[in-house]
Model the fold of this input.
Amino acid sequence: MRSKLATAGVIVGLLVLVTMMHPVAASGSLGGSNYHHPYPHGLIPGDIVMGHNPVSDLVIPGYWTHTGIIAYYDYNANDWVVVEAWDNPSEVRLVYLSDFLKRYDTVAVLRVKTTNYVRQAAVEFALQQLGKPYDWKWWTKHVYGDSYYCSELVWAAYMAAGGPDIDANPGWSWKYLDGVAPQEIYDDSNTYVIYYNSV
Done:
Protein backbone atom coordinates (compact mmCIF):
# COMPACT_ATOMS: atom_id res chain seq x y z
CA MET A 1 0.00 0.00 0.00
CA ARG A 2 2.79 2.43 0.93
CA SER A 3 4.65 1.68 -2.31
CA LYS A 4 1.49 2.43 -4.30
CA LEU A 5 1.07 5.74 -2.46
CA ALA A 6 4.74 6.59 -3.00
CA THR A 7 4.44 5.77 -6.72
CA ALA A 8 1.29 7.89 -6.98
CA GLY A 9 3.10 10.75 -5.23
CA VAL A 10 5.99 10.56 -7.68
CA ILE A 11 3.59 10.54 -10.64
CA VAL A 12 1.68 13.57 -9.31
CA GLY A 13 4.98 15.38 -8.69
CA LEU A 14 6.11 14.68 -12.26
CA LEU A 15 2.76 15.87 -13.64
CA VAL A 16 3.06 19.12 -11.69
CA LEU A 17 6.63 19.60 -12.97
CA VAL A 18 5.56 18.96 -16.58
CA THR A 19 2.61 21.34 -16.14
CA MET A 20 4.93 24.05 -14.87
CA MET A 21 7.29 23.57 -17.83
CA HIS A 22 4.48 23.28 -20.39
CA PRO A 23 1.48 24.78 -18.65
CA VAL A 24 -2.09 23.98 -19.47
CA ALA A 25 -3.57 27.08 -21.02
CA ALA A 26 -5.27 29.27 -18.47
CA SER A 27 -8.52 30.91 -19.46
CA GLY A 28 -8.76 34.58 -20.28
CA SER A 29 -6.74 37.12 -22.17
CA LEU A 30 -3.50 38.71 -21.11
CA GLY A 31 -3.13 42.29 -20.01
CA GLY A 32 -5.77 44.96 -19.71
CA SER A 33 -5.85 44.98 -15.94
CA ASN A 34 -6.39 48.27 -14.11
CA TYR A 35 -4.14 46.96 -11.35
CA HIS A 36 -0.43 47.30 -10.85
CA HIS A 37 0.61 43.66 -10.91
CA PRO A 38 2.01 42.55 -7.55
CA TYR A 39 5.11 40.89 -9.07
CA PRO A 40 7.54 43.23 -7.25
CA HIS A 41 6.12 41.92 -3.99
CA GLY A 42 7.71 38.53 -4.63
CA LEU A 43 4.78 36.18 -5.21
CA ILE A 44 5.38 32.48 -4.71
CA PRO A 45 3.31 29.37 -5.46
CA GLY A 46 0.82 28.85 -2.66
CA ASP A 47 0.05 32.52 -2.14
CA ILE A 48 -3.68 33.26 -1.97
CA VAL A 49 -5.33 35.91 -4.13
CA MET A 50 -8.55 37.59 -2.93
CA GLY A 51 -11.13 39.71 -4.72
CA HIS A 52 -14.10 41.88 -3.74
CA ASN A 53 -17.13 42.25 -5.99
CA PRO A 54 -19.87 44.53 -4.61
CA VAL A 55 -22.60 42.55 -6.41
CA SER A 56 -21.54 39.33 -4.64
CA ASP A 57 -21.83 41.12 -1.28
CA LEU A 58 -25.54 40.34 -1.44
CA VAL A 59 -24.96 36.60 -0.99
CA ILE A 60 -21.43 36.07 0.36
CA PRO A 61 -20.79 37.02 4.00
CA GLY A 62 -17.83 39.27 4.71
CA TYR A 63 -16.05 41.81 2.52
CA TRP A 64 -14.06 39.38 0.33
CA THR A 65 -16.14 37.52 -2.25
CA HIS A 66 -13.68 35.28 -4.15
CA THR A 67 -10.33 33.59 -3.70
CA GLY A 68 -7.87 31.35 -5.53
CA ILE A 69 -4.40 29.90 -5.04
CA ILE A 70 -1.38 30.97 -7.09
CA ALA A 71 0.02 27.84 -8.76
CA TYR A 72 2.98 28.76 -10.97
CA TYR A 73 4.45 31.35 -13.30
CA ASP A 74 3.78 30.84 -17.01
CA TYR A 75 6.92 32.20 -18.71
CA ASN A 76 5.32 31.91 -22.17
CA ALA A 77 2.47 34.18 -21.15
CA ASN A 78 4.53 36.28 -18.70
CA ASP A 79 1.84 35.89 -16.05
CA TRP A 80 1.06 33.93 -12.90
CA VAL A 81 -1.54 31.17 -13.10
CA VAL A 82 -4.24 30.83 -10.42
CA VAL A 83 -6.29 27.75 -9.56
CA GLU A 84 -9.85 28.76 -8.71
CA ALA A 85 -13.24 27.15 -8.28
CA TRP A 86 -15.49 29.20 -10.54
CA ASP A 87 -19.25 29.04 -10.99
CA ASN A 88 -19.43 29.74 -14.75
CA PRO A 89 -18.28 27.45 -16.20
CA SER A 90 -18.96 25.53 -13.06
CA GLU A 91 -15.58 23.94 -12.37
CA VAL A 92 -12.14 24.14 -10.83
CA ARG A 93 -10.00 25.80 -13.49
CA LEU A 94 -6.85 27.77 -14.28
CA VAL A 95 -6.95 31.50 -14.94
CA TYR A 96 -4.25 34.12 -15.41
CA LEU A 97 -3.66 36.39 -12.44
CA SER A 98 -4.12 39.51 -14.59
CA ASP A 99 -7.63 38.33 -15.48
CA PHE A 100 -8.39 37.48 -11.86
CA LEU A 101 -7.33 40.97 -10.72
CA LYS A 102 -9.37 42.93 -13.25
CA ARG A 103 -12.66 41.37 -12.13
CA TYR A 104 -12.64 43.13 -8.75
CA ASP A 105 -12.67 46.63 -7.29
CA THR A 106 -10.34 45.54 -4.47
CA VAL A 107 -7.73 42.78 -4.51
CA ALA A 108 -5.26 41.35 -2.00
CA VAL A 109 -2.62 38.65 -1.94
CA LEU A 110 -2.09 36.67 1.27
CA ARG A 111 0.77 34.45 2.33
CA VAL A 112 0.27 31.49 4.62
CA LYS A 113 2.59 31.22 7.62
CA THR A 114 4.16 27.87 6.75
CA THR A 115 7.02 26.34 4.79
CA ASN A 116 7.53 26.40 1.03
CA TYR A 117 7.18 22.60 1.11
CA VAL A 118 3.64 22.88 2.53
CA ARG A 119 2.77 25.70 0.11
CA GLN A 120 3.87 23.56 -2.84
CA ALA A 121 1.93 20.56 -1.52
CA ALA A 122 -1.17 22.80 -1.30
CA VAL A 123 -0.67 23.85 -4.93
CA GLU A 124 -0.31 20.22 -6.01
CA PHE A 125 -3.56 19.33 -4.24
CA ALA A 126 -5.38 22.24 -5.92
CA LEU A 127 -4.06 21.22 -9.35
CA GLN A 128 -5.33 17.67 -8.79
CA GLN A 129 -8.87 19.09 -8.45
CA LEU A 130 -8.91 20.69 -11.93
CA GLY A 131 -12.14 19.95 -13.78
CA LYS A 132 -14.16 19.08 -10.68
CA PRO A 133 -17.56 20.82 -10.55
CA TYR A 134 -18.40 23.89 -8.50
CA ASP A 135 -19.86 23.21 -5.04
CA TRP A 136 -22.97 25.29 -4.41
CA LYS A 137 -23.21 24.12 -0.78
CA TRP A 138 -21.42 27.14 0.70
CA TRP A 139 -22.63 26.31 4.20
CA THR A 140 -20.44 23.16 4.40
CA LYS A 141 -16.80 22.32 3.74
CA HIS A 142 -14.84 19.15 2.99
CA VAL A 143 -11.15 18.57 2.45
CA TYR A 144 -11.67 15.65 0.08
CA GLY A 145 -14.77 16.17 -2.02
CA ASP A 146 -16.23 15.73 -5.48
CA SER A 147 -16.77 19.49 -5.87
CA TYR A 148 -15.43 22.74 -4.42
CA TYR A 149 -16.39 26.38 -4.04
CA CYS A 150 -13.58 28.94 -4.16
CA SER A 151 -12.61 29.32 -0.51
CA GLU A 152 -13.33 25.66 0.21
CA LEU A 153 -10.73 24.70 -2.41
CA VAL A 154 -8.07 27.03 -0.97
CA TRP A 155 -8.78 25.91 2.61
CA ALA A 156 -8.85 22.21 1.61
CA ALA A 157 -5.53 22.55 -0.25
CA TYR A 158 -3.77 23.65 2.92
CA MET A 159 -5.55 21.11 5.09
CA ALA A 160 -4.56 18.30 2.69
CA ALA A 161 -0.97 19.59 2.76
CA GLY A 162 -0.85 19.21 6.54
CA GLY A 163 -2.10 22.61 7.62
CA PRO A 164 -2.33 25.15 8.99
CA ASP A 165 -6.10 25.41 9.17
CA ILE A 166 -6.72 28.80 7.53
CA ASP A 167 -10.39 29.04 8.53
CA ALA A 168 -10.61 31.78 11.16
CA ASN A 169 -13.85 30.22 12.49
CA PRO A 170 -13.34 26.47 12.11
CA GLY A 171 -16.54 25.55 13.94
CA TRP A 172 -20.15 26.43 13.24
CA SER A 173 -21.16 30.10 13.37
CA TRP A 174 -24.33 32.07 12.64
CA LYS A 175 -22.55 34.15 10.01
CA TYR A 176 -20.64 31.45 8.11
CA LEU A 177 -22.54 28.32 9.21
CA ASP A 178 -20.19 25.33 8.77
CA GLY A 179 -18.50 26.59 5.61
CA VAL A 180 -15.39 28.64 5.00
CA ALA A 181 -15.83 32.06 3.39
CA PRO A 182 -13.07 34.08 1.69
CA GLN A 183 -13.32 36.57 4.57
CA GLU A 184 -12.46 33.83 7.07
CA ILE A 185 -9.26 33.01 5.16
CA TYR A 186 -8.38 36.72 5.11
CA ASP A 187 -9.05 37.04 8.86
CA ASP A 188 -7.18 33.89 9.90
CA SER A 189 -4.08 34.39 12.06
CA ASN A 190 -2.13 31.97 9.83
CA THR A 191 -2.36 34.33 6.82
CA TYR A 192 -1.00 37.82 6.28
CA VAL A 193 -1.36 40.41 3.53
CA ILE A 194 1.59 40.93 1.17
CA TYR A 195 -0.29 43.01 -1.44
CA TYR A 196 -3.46 45.13 -1.37
CA ASN A 197 -4.97 47.42 -3.99
CA SER A 198 -8.34 49.16 -4.35
CA VAL A 199 -9.52 51.12 -7.39
